[in-house]
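Before surveying the methods themselves, it helps to consider a single example record, giving the amino acid sequence and backbone structure tokens:
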Amino acid sequence: MENKRNNKKLIYLAILIVAIAAAVGFLAYQKSEQNYQKAIQSELPDKCATPPGYTDEQWKEHMSHHPDMYERCL
């Protein structure tokens, strides 16, 4: 009888852990999606122009990591 109680407790604990992990994952995904949208909206009209916070050299290096996005700039 005691063993069945312990098994039920373990099952409830496992369900609770999975629910918490799912909630945390969902919230983290939403936050990353918000950050992505914010970054997209803050792009300069001229993709090749060096944005604030970068030196020309840093920006060229960054663009080289994304040749499909900055093909005309490289």
User: Anything to note?
Assistant: Residues 2-41 form the longest helix (40 residues). The CA atoms of residues 2 and 67 lie 63 Å apart. The radius of gyration is 24 Å.
